[in-house]
Amino acid sequence: MAAKPEPPKFVPVDERDLDPGHRWHRPLAAPGVTQVDFEERVDFRRLHRYRLARTRAALARAGLGAMLCFDQHNIRYISSTVIGEWARDKLIRYCLLTGTGEPWVWDFGSAARHHKLYCPWLREDHVRAGNPGMRGAIGPKVGLFEQAAREIKDILVQEGVADMPLGLDVCEPAMLFALQKEGIEVRDGQQTMLEAREVKSHDEIVLLNIAAAMVDGAYQAIAEALRPGVRESDIVALAAKRLYEMGSDCVEAVNAIAGERCSPHPHNFTDRLIRPGDQAYFDVIHSYVGYRTCYYRTFAVGRATPAQVDAYKRAREWMDGAISMLKPGVTTDQVARMFPECTEIGFETEMAAFGLNFCHGLGLGLHERPLISRLNSFIEPYELKAGMVFAVETFCPAKDGVSAARIEEEVVLTPEGAKIITLFPANELPVAHAW
Questions:
Q1: How far apart are CA 44 and CA 63, in angstroms?
Q2: DSSP string, 138-177
């Protein structure tokens, strides 16, 4: 009988690289956006090692031989490469990590050559130009998917994991079919990557805190500008300008909603003029070195009515109840019970009310694991861990039928509980330019 082949030897994970380096005995830092020689701010090489080690450990636990990523956040997490917001919806960049080797990156044209020059943590021969078709803009008859799949298969063979399942996060269907045609067993790798990303290191928390500090400043500018005659779109422009001035690398979205547009929440902005007595709320989503914010604040303009104050009070109570439950060892179903049922805010199902009262993990992605809501958390409870970072959102419509309160806090889970890092005042409804 032929001897059974030895299983591939995965690259060992250095326990020192897996150490998140949390410093819970010290205040959470939000230093400047530059590096200096007299303080340690963010150690980017340590950050690279941590993210790669977390990915390797998750890969091994999942029983996968390799991970193939088209999700921009996963590519950045594994390879520490990025080419900007342009790439977000193109599905043109991809990254491969086998359990036995180092990261491979395929990037758009000259970006691959740029990585070879400026990313010394990657092996030069592991960075290649790639293009599977730009979401169909190049027709399938050209054969780019098949070419990419053959190239990936060759690497899996060379690195000894071709007989093991391949994790895949997101892709065009034609890419999946081409991989399967090469005889590769493809499994869902997105859950594996979200598991890897769920506990943030000290460096990641610093970056998230810096990003939140920028939004603190943006809200100061919003509060000063929020007066009758200003348009929702003016506030969006103001926030984007202020964030880029402070060092943001991407202002992904700013929601601006006022007056009769507040309920139901439309998740957008228009050129509507702000009027006296309006309730107005905003969500600022941006990133610093890739690490995102999701940060709502609500204001009354000039004066606040009893209905507006009552809605805000209830939204704050739900917020504080959820935050009080965010502790290591608590399960997500316990947190979800602190949020109102859908009917309490005027919706017929939890699906219809989804996204108004919930928590979501925050990091390189806007929505990371775990996500806590009445829609999913009673079905699949999940244990919380120190080092997770959440955005906690609440929404309450006012009894006047048009106004609504929307609050969001970002929190870091320390061993003692949740630490709020979104510091623009929100305990009571702020009134801009009161008279």
A1: 29
A2: S-GGG-HHHHHHHHHHHHHHHTT-TTS-EEE-S--HHHHH
Q: How does DSSP assign 7-19, residue by residue?
A: PP-PPPPPHHHH-
Give the separation between CA 258 and CA 124, rounded to whole angstroms: 52
Alpha helices in 19-135 (DSSP H): 44-62, 72-79, 110-118
What's the CA gap between 432 and 435, in Å, rounded? 9
pLDDT in tens, 318-357: 999 999 999 999 999 999 999 999 999 999 999 999 999 9
Residues with Cβ within 8 Å of 354's Cβ and at least 6 positions away in sequence, in order, are 373, 375
pLDDT, one tens digit per residue, over 395-432 is 999 999 999 999 999 999 999 999 999 999 999 999 99
Convert the pLDDT of each residue in 23-65 to its tens digit.
Answer: 999 999 999 999 999 999 999 999 999 999 999 999 999 999 9
Over residues 126-144, the pLDDT tens digits come to: 999 999 988 889 988 999 9
Of 417, 362, 363, give the one whose Cα is nearest residue 393. Answer: 362
What proportions of the chain, in percent to the nearest 5, are helix, strand and coil?
A: 35, 20, 45
Q: What is the rounded CA–CA span in Å between residue 215 and residue 203? A: 19
Q: Which H or E run contains 292?
A: strand 291-292
188 token code pair: 């869902």
The pLDDT, as a whole number, for residue 118 is 96
- pLDDT confidence of residue 1: 57
Which helix (H) or strand (E) element contains residue 368? strand 368-372
> Which is it for strands 291-292 and 295-301: parallel, antiparallel or unpaired?
unpaired
Domains of the chain, earliest start first: 15-197 (3.40.350.10), 202-432 (3.90.230.10)
Query: Residue 106's beta-bridge partner residues?
Result: 94, 128
Question: Token pair for residue 183?
Answer: 């005889």
Q: Is the pLDDT of residue 6 over 60?
A: yes
> 3-class secondary structure for 180-217?
HHCCCCEEECHHHHHHHHCCCCHHHHHHHHHHHHHHHH
User: Which DSSP state fits 331?
Assistant: B
Closest CA to 235 of 248, 246, 219: 219
DSSP conformation class of 366: S
